[in-house]
Specification:
This protein is mostly beta strands and 152 residues long. The chain is built from one helix and eleven strands.
């Protein structure tokens, strides 16, 4: 997991070929005009999910992981709390991996919570089990979904 400011996005370009177009999308995003929902950027290799609304709270935020996509979760307004756990620490598995949604849920609650303040992001790799939307306040977030296998 990585936690940093959006202004520092260029530092992470060498980690994955999809990070440069992901952070460029963020820098050029018209925050007033972008509608909620899925926004195509580069087909199945890179897309954004725009969310606006109240968080779920820590009690209801579900631990999840993804196999095909890396999440870059960006707070635009509001402060989100995102739970984190390494997948190796998850002894219990949920109902298993749901292929069509690229998600696996895990039982229990996170023991570690990170604040994503406006202008910050968290990068969650497949081994990073995370529980987004742990805040109870109004949030405006951009979740960038970057394909692990960029050469699809």
């Amino acid at each position: 997991m990585v936690l940093d400011r959006i202004d520092n996005g260029e530092r992470y370009y060498p980690l994955h070929p999809g990070f440069k177009p992901a952070f460029e999308y963020l820098k050029n995003l018209d925050l007033k005009a972008v509608p909620a929902g899925r926004q195509e950027i580069d087909g199945s290799r890179l897309y954004a999910v725009i969310t606006r609304g109240p968080g779920k709270g820590m009690e209801k935020a579900r631990l999840e992981s993804h196999k095909r996509y890396i999440d870059i979760q960006c707070a635009i307004s509001g402060t989100d709390l995102i739970g984190w756990k390494n997948i190796s620490e998850c002894a219990a598995r949920g109902q298993g991996y749901i292929e069509e949604k690229d998600i696996e849920y895990f039982p229990g609650m996170s023991e570690v919570w990170v604040k994503t303040l406006p202008g910050t992001f968290g990068i969650f790799f497949p081994e990073d089990v995370h529980a987004p939307m742990g805040s109870e306040e109004e949030l405006f977030k951009v979740i960038l979904k970057v394909a692990v296998d960029w050469d699809l």
